[in-house]
Specification:
Helices cover 47% and strands 19% of the residues. It is an alpha/beta fold. Strands 1, 2, 3, 4, 7, 8, 9 and 10 form an 8-stranded mixed sheet that branches. Strands 5-6 form a two-stranded parallel sheet. Strand 1 (41-45), helix 3 and strand 2 form a beta-alpha-beta unit.
Length: 333
């Protein structure tokens, strides 16, 4: 047998030999993709149970389980604003049995805020597909005498440094969205960072702060009840959850686009055939009507695009928010 193989190799041209070698190495990968998954898949959610990312992940996991024929089990691994759980995915065995849902903060924002990252988003992770887009909405309290975005900007210009905005924490999307508004409109606002959405919204309702950007699900109930006034949504298209709220693009400020988006990721060394099998299942799940409806009920849009499209989007977001962070002079230790 060895003699036959030796004779075959000697008789082929360099081009044919290269093709044979390519087929030889590709065969195990194809076989592993066909056998994948061989056991339950762990979907790491880098935030506590009950939050938006956890909700999206559980809806996605249920549908992917049916498509892949193996259970997709949620593991909540919170810490460091989503970095701890995402880092665990980057460092996991690259066999496709550990995947993660990563937020914009982990993939595009913190690289501009921190000197030391526990992983490199575009190097240590393979980006599969964007899972969801959750637009930010700008609201003001009942006591603010502004009913439109233009009126609020005029009010801020008339009272520079007197209006106070809340955020869910330094460097988070609500903070950066407001910094982008400040830069774009040329206004001065005072920042009060909170340790989460709940205390920030409570102080906004109580009149202790005047405005904030936040994810639609966070503010939806208060807006619908009339306790908070929505001035604009930072997106290209209106939200089905709040169809009467104009977008910043409609209001002449298209540059003020902000949303908390999430994507599906695996370790960078995961074989391409396995990664594609995961991506295809996720995309099929995200395009399913019942999944879209469940996401929409949370004020989010299900996406499901190609790996190339998602990677290009992450690169663009990293650059865009990097410019805002640099202009605003924001830095985390």
């Amino acid at each position: 047998m060895c003699a036959q193989i030796r004779q075959t190799c000697l008789s082929v041209t360099p081009v044919r030999l290269a093709c044979l070698l390519a087929l030889l190495f590709a065969a195990p990968l194809a076989s592993s993709a066909e056998e994948f998954p061989s056991r339950a898949i762990k979907l790491v959610v880098p935030f506590p149970a009950g939050g938006p990312a956890d909700t999206f992940a559980r809806v996605l996991a249920d549908k992917m389980s049916a498509l892949l024929g193996k259970s997709v089990v949620i593991e909540n691994r919170a810490g460091a604003g989503g970095l701890t759980g995402t880092a665990s995915v980057a460092k996991a065995d690259p066999d496709g049995h550990t995947i993660g849902i990563a937020a914009s903060s982990a993939l595009a924002i913190n690289v501009n805020l921190r000197d030391n990252m526990p992983f490199r988003p575009l190097t240590d992770l393979r980006l599969l597909t964007q899972v969801a887009s959750v637009p930010e909405i700008l609201v003001v309290g009942e006591g603010v005498p502004a009913r439109t975005l233009a009126e609020f900007i005029a009010l801020a210009k008339a009272q520079p440094g007197r209006l106070v905005f809340a955020s869910t924490g330094l460097g988070g999307m609500p903070h950066l969205a407001t910094e982008l508004l400040k830069i774009s409109a040329g206004i001065e606002l005072v920042h009060v960072p909170y340790t989460g959405a709940a205390p920030a919204v409570n102080d906004l309702l109580g009149g202790h702060v005047q405005m904030m950007f936040a994810d639609i699900p966070v503010l939806l109930g208060a807006v619908q009840s009339g306790k908070l006034r929505a001035l604009a949504i930072g997106a290209k298209a209106r939200s089905p959850s709040l169809p009467d709220v104009a977008t910043t693009a409609e209001l002449g400020m298209p540059q003020i686009e902000a949303d908390n988006w999430y994507g599906l990721v695996v370790a960078a060394a995961t074989p391409a055939p396995i990664a594609e099998k995961l991506r295809a299942a996720a995309v099929e799940a995200l395009h399913a009507a019942e999944v879209k409806d469940k996401f929409q009920s949370q004020g989010a849009l299900a996406v499901g695009n190609s790996s190339e499209e998602f990677t290009a989007y992450v690169k663009a977001e990293t650059e865009r928010w990097g410019r805002v962070i640099a202009t605003a002079g924001i830095k985390l230790k």
